[in-house]
Design goal:
Helices cover 43% and strands 23% of the residues. The chain is of the alpha/beta class.
């Protein structure tokens, strides 16, 4: 009983501190690591304590642990993020994409900006009918030097993002850049908003569905992987 209580306390603390939990009480006897990316992705600078964030220095070790843990069969990623630090978001996306174990992502609410690479980094992706994805150009905060080198850096960063997205879904990089530079949708900004079925129609997300669909798909992929 004491051991079960300790395990329950450990799970609660892991959920509170990192937005993660181990899902193991299922009919398939699969151990699934749940990872949630919520709020703004925090990078090298700490955001205000009132801001809901996902800290990349928490997520990266947990993904490495999931890869190395023989008891972890697959990873389920829940996304509801406004985006955030580009370098940190790409780092998390690259980690997810490089996992050898089956991964499924589910967009809940929204997966905006650098959240798009996170959604497509999984082996299979879902979005709820009301879920949104916002694709827009790279933005930098702070002092920006108006020089050719700055513009070249912006272009390189956007190419990194569009290249990653194109490599992990069915949409081409040219179409992604076209959606980034769309001037007809957002009144005071560039970009494109995709809702549910639109993200699937564009070829960014695999399927519209909910958590039951995502969990069922992940169990199926784990079973296929274990054969």
């Amino acid at each position: 009983m004491a051991k079960e209580a300790d395990n329950g306390k450990e799970k609660t603390e892991e959920l509170q501190d990192f937005g993660q939990i181990q899902m193991s009480h299922n009919r398939q006897n699969h151990n699934v690591r749940l990872l949630s990316v919520i709020g703004e992705i925090e990078g090298h600078e700490c955001l205000a304590s009132t801001t809901k964030t996902t800290k990349y220095e928490h997520v990266l070790p947990k993904l490495a642990e999931a890869e190395d843990d023989a008891e972890v069969d697959g990873v389920l990623i829940l996304l509801n993020t406004v985006g955030g630090d580009v370098e940190s978001g790409l780092a998390i996306a690259e980690m997810i994409a490089s996992l050898s174990k089956p991964t499924v992502s589910l967009v809940l609410g929204g997966s905006h900006s650098i959240g798009v690479p996170l959604a497509v980094a999984a082996d299979y992706s879902y979005i709820v009918p009301s879920g949104t994805m916002v694709i827009h150009p790279v933005r930098l905060s702070g002092t920006v030097i108006g020089s050719q080198q700055t513009y070249d850096y912006f272009k390189q960063m956007q190419e990194r993002i569009s290249g990653f997205i194109a490599a992990h879904c069915m949409v081409k990089a040219e179409r992604i850049e076209e959606m980034m530079m769309n001037t007809s949708m957002l009144t005071k900004d560039l970009g494109t908003i995709l809702v549910g079925h639109e993200a699937v129609a564009e070829g960014i997300i695999n399927e519209v569905g909910g958590v039951s669909d995502a969990v069922r798909k992940l169990h199926f992929m784990i079973s296929e992987n274990q054969q």
